[in-house]
Design a protein that fits this description.
Blueprint lengths: L3 H7 L3 H7 L4 H10 L5 H10 L3 H17 L3 H15 L7 H19 L1
């Protein structure tokens, strides 16, 4: 099970995240545990594979919001980078950035499972 200590080691600002959850560590941990199954990771991946930048932007923007609200800082920062490139409709290879974000999700998944 993920703990505040594990999340701090991951780079999360747990004090801020818990504060956003009205001071409830239990609620914060519950919400963090939902992130590995967040559907917008797959929506983003699929949209980028189809070169659907509008749909990709929507998914990246949604991820940015949830990751920011939970103060999962490393993932939030990467989602901001992807979101802003998509907002500008930048023609680039998104795969390396997406791979980084998905690798962080996988690491979070491991933390939640251990």
């Amino acid at each position: 099970m993920v703990t505040v200590e594990k999340l701090n080691g991951f780079g999360a600002d747990t004090d801020e995240g818990i504060s956003r959850c009205c001071g409830s560590e239990a609620l914060y941990i519950k919400l963090v545990n939902m992130i590995p199954n967040e559907s917008n990771f797959e929506v983003l991946k699929d949209a980028l594979e189809r070169n659907d930048l509008d749909k990709a932007f929507e998914a990246a923007h949604a991820l940015k919001g949830v990751l920011g609200n939970l103060s999962l800082t490393p993932m939030y920062n990467k989602s901001v980078e992807i979101t802003e490139l998509l907002r500008a409709r930048t023609k680039t290879d998104y795969e390396p950035k997406l791979d980084e974000l998905l690798a962080m999700r996988d690491r979070l998944t491991e933390l939640c499972a251990s």
